Amino acid sequence: MSKDWIKNKGKFVEFDVRSLKGNFLLAIVKKAKTISKGEGIAIVQNFEPIPLYNTMKNLGFEYHTEKKAESLFVSYFYRREAIDADDKEIPLKPIVIPRYAEIDPKIAELTVNFWSNIWDKENPAIELKTKLLLSLTNAVGAGRIRQSTRELIKAYYLGVTVEQLDEFFALIIWNQGIGHFSSEIAQSSLFKVYSLIKTLEKKGNTRDEIMPVLTEKFGEKNPETGFNNH
């Protein structure tokens, strides 16, 4: 598709997100939803905002990114069509990358490209749902409960069943021991998400009905699972 709109990119609304400390992705999406069909927005960041591309695509945007200087990227997004795509978005996007930029923008640039190669690889050999389960397992083994909880929510969104989660938690008991499970896992946000999913499904709720509850209770505002501004 021709990107004839690029010649008008200088007229796009500019949104500089370099100073944002919280979830810059949510802030951009909120701003992007105000952009009408046939108009555009220019996102200024100190690393290429690769995790944003699919999100904006699902909202009807095309993109063109330019590296203006060292650690200065401008991504131009043109709204070819207005799409309300909340139901197409995998929840709990990566939002920690700006923290790396606070240390060194080059580290943020390396990190975002590494993230893209792992999680946004074209034609991957391992499907995303399986990658999330593997990441979830590794996170539990390393004691990273915050990460494991986020991975569980994303895996459930992609279709992991309660029966599969039952077997997953049985494997945790087998591999880490009943004592560790009782004192750590059973009290964690990870197990709370699992229990809530089972409870709501038993009540007859669908996956589409359960997902908003999970993201509300265990999203960015929850100190056990989110990333606060402070």
Q: Can you put this structure into words, describing what you see?
A:
- By secondary structure, this protein is an alpha+beta fold.
- It has two domains: 1-123, no CATH class; 126-217, AhpD-like, CATH 1.20.1290.
- It has ten helices and four strands.
- The chain has helices at residues 24-32, 50-58, 97-103, 105-119, 128-141, 145-157, 162-176, 178-183, 189-202, 207-217; strands spanning 13-16, 40-45, 61-69, 72-79.
- Strands 1-2-4-3 form a four-stranded mixed beta sheet, with helices on one face.
- Strand 1, helix 1 and strand 2 form a beta-alpha-beta unit.
- Helix 3 runs antiparallel to helix 4 (105-119), helix 5 runs antiparallel to helix 6 and helix 6 runs parallel beside helix 9 (189-202).
- The longest helix has 15 residues, at 105-119.
- The chain starts with 12 loop residues before the first strand and ends in a 13-residue tail after the last helix.
- The model has no long low-confidence stretch (mean pLDDT 90).
Furnish the topology, listing elements before pairings.
Elements: E1 13-16, H1 24-32, E2 40-45, H2 50-58, E3 61-69, E4 72-79, H3 97-103, H4 105-119, H5 128-141, H6 145-157, H7 162-176, H8 178-183, H9 189-202, H10 207-217
Parallel strand pairs: 1-2
Antiparallel strand pairs: 2-4, 3-4
